[in-house]
Specification:
By secondary structure, this protein is α/β, with parallel strands linked by helices. The chain folds into four domains: about 10-165 and about 380-460, FAD/NAD(P)-binding domain, CATH 3.50.50.60; about 170-235 and about 315-375, FAD/NAD(P)-binding domain (3-Layer(bba) Sandwich), CATH 3.50.50; about 250-300, no CATH class; about 480-700, Metallo-beta-lactamase, Chain A (4-Layer Sandwich), CATH 3.60.15.10. About 25% of the residues lie in helices and about 20% in strands. Strands 8-14-9-10-11-12-13 form a seven-stranded mixed beta sheet. Strand 24 (about 580-585) and strand 25 form a beta hairpin. Helix 4 crosses helix 10 (about 320-330). The longest helix is centred in the middle third of the chain and has 18 residues, at about 445-460.
C-alpha cells in the first residue's frame, strides 16, 4: 500500500534583522544553499536593502578602503565583484582599483537579487521595511516585534545590526544640534560658508570621509581635527605578499610580546629587501582572531590602552587618492590635526569656543568654529546603547555585554551567549557585535566568511519536522578508543562493533603493539584490520607485527607504493564492521596518497591532513600544499560542523576538535586564501622527522623491519 502517511513539511522561517551588507550577505548565502522549504524575512527600516551606512553614501569620492580584487561577496568566488564590475560598465577597473562605495552598494543589491532569482522554488525572500523593537524566545520559536505592530514567528533570528551611531563626547553634549552633527547625518557638512571653520572630532576613517566630502563640495574654510593620539590614517600601497611569520601556538600571549615580535619582523623584512611595512602587517591578518583570543583579558585591555590607536591607522588604511587629498589639505594649512582631549565647549554669538588640552604638553588650545562634526566612529558598547531592540534583549537576559565594552559575547558559530553564559539555539549575530570576541570583525573579508558559515549553521540546525510523529531508530553505539604514543606524538584509534566484537586499529605504532594486544584481550575483541592513513615518516607502523600475531589484514591507501599489503583502499570505499561504517576520503597533500576516514558519519580520523589548530607538513613524500588546502577546505570543511575531528598527531596535549571549530579557529586555514596557505607551508622550514630514514622503508613494507639478512643471496 502506497502513501499510508501523507507527510508535509511547513517552511521554516528565519528573520534577519538589518538589511545592510551583513544581513544581505546572510540572506544571499541562505538563498544559494537552501534546498528545503524556507522563508527568509529580511527586516530593514530603510527602503533600500544592501547599503547600510557604509555603502549608502551618495558621494562619489567616498571610496572603498580595500581594492576591488579583494571585495568579493563570496569567499569561494574571489573574482565575483570584478566580474560584476566588468559586466556592468566598469571595464576599466582592475583588482587594485578603489571603487566608490556607492558602486559597491549597487553590487550588494545585485548579488542579493541574483541569489533570490536563482534560489529553489520553495525558498522565498520577503523584504520587510520596518524596524525590529523587541524579541521574545519561546521553547520552539522566536517572536520578533516590529515598530508597526506586526509580529513575526520564526525559528531563528539573526541580528545583523551593523554599526550604531557614535557616542557624543561629554564636553560636546552641552551644545545644541545647531552646532554639533553626526558625521553620517545628511546635514553634517551642509550650509557652511567659505570663511567658516569646522572641527572634526576623531582622526580616523570617518574623518577622512568628511575631509574628502568637504573637498568635493569646494569648502575653503579651516578644518581642525582632534583625537587623543592625533594619528592620521595611513594609505594603501601596492606590495608583494609577505610570508606568514607567526604561529598561533607559539605566539606571545602578551601585547608587549606581540608588539616586539612584529617590530622585529619589520626590521628583518627591511634587511631582506622588503621596504614596505604594509606587507608585514597584512601577513598577520588571517590569524588576528586567534591571536586576540589567546591573550588573557588583562593583556587585551593593555592592547586597547597602549597599542590600539597605532594598530588602527596601520591596519585600516585609505586609498592613495584619499591620502593625496588629506596630504594636500595639510600642506596648504587648511587641515590641522591635534593630539589631545576636548576639555570644554562654550557657545558664543556666532559659533563655539572649543578648549583642547594638548597631549604631552598639557597646554590649552582654543579653537573658534562654526560647526563640530562627530567622527569618533561606531559605538559598539552595548551597555550604553539606547535602542529598543537592545534594551529588550538585555531586559530578558538574552545577551551578555562583552567585558571589554565591545559588542556582545558570542559562541564560535555566532550564537548569542545569554547573561547566564548559555549559547542560544535561536539567536545569532555577525560583524561588529562580535568585536570583543574576535577583534577584527568589521571588514568585508571577515564578514563574508562569517555570513557563509552562519548560513550553513542555520540550515544545518533547521531540521524539517513532519506533521506526524516519526520514530528514529539509533544505530548501536560503536566502541571507540584514542590511544597515544608519547615518543612520536601519534594517535592510534581502536574502533569496534560492540555486538560482533570485531575491531580495527587505525595507524598502529610498532612500539605499542603489546599495549594494543592487551586492550583487545581485555575488551574481548577480535582484530580484523589494521588501517593506515598514509605511509608514515615519524614512526614504524605496527601492522606487520599485529598481522603476524592476530591474523588481521593490513590495508593501506591505494597508490601509496606499499608492498606486503593485504588490501588497498581508495576514495569512497567503505569498510564495514557490523554496525560500524568507515568511509575513505582522499585527502592528498601531506602525501600524495593520504586518506582520512569518516566513521559512522560522526568521527573523522584526519591523519596528517588536519590537526587541531594545524595541519601536516607538505615538503616531502610528494606532498603538495595546494592539494592539501583543496582537500581540507573542499572536502573536510564541507562536513557538518559538529563532526568530531580526531587527528593523527598532537603536540600540545589536545585530543579532539570539531569541523566547526577548525573552520573558525585553525590558523593554517581560517581566513587564508589558497595562495597564502601555499606561501605559509613553503616557509615553515621544519626539520626532518627523526625516524624518517628508518620509518619510510619499513612502512613501505607495512611495517616489516628490514634487517641485513633480508638482502643476502
Amino acid at each position: 500500500m502506497n502513501n499510508i502517511l501523507n507527510l508535509t513539511v511547513s517552511p521554516a522561517a528565519i528573520a534577519i534583522i538589518g538589511g545592510g551588507f551583513s544581513g544581505s550577505l546572510v540572506a544571499a548565502n541562505l538563498l544559494r544553499n537552501a534546498t528545503m522549504p524556507l522563508s527568509i524575512k529580511l527586516i530593514e527600516r530603510n527602503s533600500e536593502i544592501g547599503r547600510g551606512v557604509a555603502y549608502g553614501t551618495p558621494v562619489d569620492c567616498h571610496l572603498l578602503n580595500v581594492p576591488a580584487g579583494k571585495m568579493s561577496a563570496y569567499g569561494d568566488e574571489p573574482n565575483h565583484f570584478l566580474n560584476w564590475l566588468h559586466s556592468n560598465g566598469y571595464e576599466e577597473v582592475t583588482p587594485s582599483t578603489f571603487v566608490p562605495r556607492r558602486v559597491y552598494g549597487d553590487y550588494v543589491q545585485a548579488t542579493l537579487k541574483a541569489a533570490q532569482a536563482n534560489a529553489s522554488a520553495n525558498v522565498q525572500l520577503e523584504k520587510i521595511v520596518d524596524e525590529a523593537i523587541a524579541i521574545e524566545t519561546k521553547s520552539n520559536n522566536t517572536i520578533v516585534y516590529l515598530s508597526s505592530g506586526q509580529c513575526l514567528h520564526v525559528q531563528k533570528a539573526v541580528l545583523a545590526l551593523g554599526n550604531f551611531p557614535a557616542i557624543l563626547p561629554a564636553p560636546l553634549a552641552v551644545l545644541g544640534k545647531r552646532y554639533v552633527k553626526d558625521a553620517w547625518s545628511a546635514d553634517a557638512i551642509t550650509n557652511l560658508n567659505p570663511e567658516d571653520a569646522i572641527l572634526l572630532v576623531g582622526t580616523g576613517l570617518t574623518m577622512a570621509d568628511a575631509v574628502v566630502a568637504l573637498h568635493q563640495q569646494g569648502f575653503q574654510g579651516q578644518i581642525h581635527t582632534v583625537s587623543r593620539h592625533g594619528l592620521m590614517p595611513c594609505s594603501h600601497k601596492s606590495t608583494n605578499p609577505y610570508p606568514a611569520f607567526i604561529e598561533v601556538e607559539n605566539a606571545p600571549k602578551t601585547a608587549r610580546g606581540l608588539l616586539h615580535l612584529v617590530r622585529q619582523e619589520l626590521r628583518d623584512a627591511l634587511i631582506k629587501g622588503q621596504e614596505d611595512w604594509r606587507a608585514v602587517i597584512d601577513a598577520i591578518r588571517p590569524i588576528i582572531p586567534q591571536l586576540w583570543q589567546a591573550m588573557p583579558l588583562l593583556e587585551q585591555k593593555r592592547f586597547l590602552r597602549h597599542v590600539k590607536a597605532y594598530w588602527e591607522v596601520h591596519r585600516h588604511r585609505i586609498a592613495e587618492k584619499i591620502a593625496e587629498v588629506l596630504d594636500a589639505a595639510m600642506e596648504s594649512g587648511q587641515l590641522i590635526h591635534y593630539a589631545g582631549r576636548i576639555q570644554s565647549c562654550q557657545e558664543f554669538e556666532n559659533g563655539v569656543d572649543v578648549r583642547i588640552c594638548e597631549r604631552g604638553t598639557h597646554k590649552d588650545i582654543v579653537l573658534q568654529v562654526k560647526r563640530i562634526v562627530n567622527c569618533t566612529g561606531a559605538n559598539c558598547d552595548y551597555r550604553r546603547l539606547q535602542h529598543p531592540l537592545v534594551a529588550s534583549l538585555q531586559e530578558q537576559r538574552l545577551i551578555r555585554s562583552n567585558t571589554l565594552s565591545m559588542g556582545i559575547d558570542t559562541a564560535p558559530n555566532g550564537a548569542l551567549i545569554d547573561a547566564d553564559g548559555n549559547a542560544s539555539e535561536m539567536l545569532y549575530t555577525l560583524g561588529t557585535p562580535r568585536k570583543g570576541n574576535l577583534w577584527e570583525t568589521t571588514a568585508v573579508p571577515e564578514i563574508r566568511v562569517q555570513a557563509a558559515n552562519l548560513a550553513q549553521e542555520l540550515l544545518k540546525s533547521l531540521n524539517p519536522k513532519p506533521d506526524v510523529t516519526t520514530f528514529v531508530l539509533r544505530k548501536p553505539a560503536m566502541l571507540f578508543r584514542q590511544l597515544f604514543d608519547k615518543e612520536s606524538s601519534t594517535y592510534t584509534y581502536l574502533i569496534a562493533d560492540p555486538e560482533s566484537k570485531i575491531a580495527i586499529l587505525v595507524d598502529p605504532v610498532l612500539e605499542q603493539v603489546e599495549r594494543d594486544l592487551q586492550i583487545l584481550r581485555q575488551l574481548g575483541l577480535t582484530l580484523r584490520y589494521c588501517l593506515e592513513t598514509h605511509i608514515h615518516a615519524d614512526h614504524i607502523t605496527g601492522t606487520d607485527r599485529l598481522r603476524s600475531l592476530t591474523g588481521c589484514l593490513g590495508i593501506v591507501p591505494e597508490n601509496a607504493g606499499a608492498t606486503y599489503a593485504d588490501n588497498y583502499i581508495a576514495d569512497g570505499n567503505m569498510l564495514e564492521l557490523g554496525n560500524v561504517q568507515i568511509c575513505a576520503i582522499a585527502t592528498p597533500g601531506h602525501t600524495d596518497s593520504h586518506i582520512s576516514y569518516l566513521v559512522n558519519d560522526t568521527h573523522l580520523l584526519t591523519g596528517d591532513a588536519l590537526f587541531i589548530r594545524g595541519c601536516g607538513r607538505t615538503d616531502f613524500q610528494n606532498g603538495d600544499a595546494g592539494s592539501l588546502y583543496d582537500a581540507v577546505t573542499q572536502k573536510l570543511f564541507t562536513l557538518p560542523d559538529d563532526t568530531l575531528v580526531y587527528p593523527g598527531h598532537d603536540y600540545q596535549g589536545q585530543t579532539v576538535s570539531t569541523i566547526g571549530e577548525e573552520k573558525h579557529w585553525n590558523p593554517r586555514f581560517a581566513g587564508r586564501s589558497r595562495n597564502q596557505f601555499i606561501e605559509l607551508m613553503k616557509n615553515l622550514n621544519l626539520p626532518q622527522p627523526k625516524k624518517m630514514l628508518e620509518a619510510l622503508p619499513a612502512n613501505q613494507h607495512c611495517g616489516r623491519v628490514l634487517v641485513a639478512w633480508d638482502y643476502q643471496i
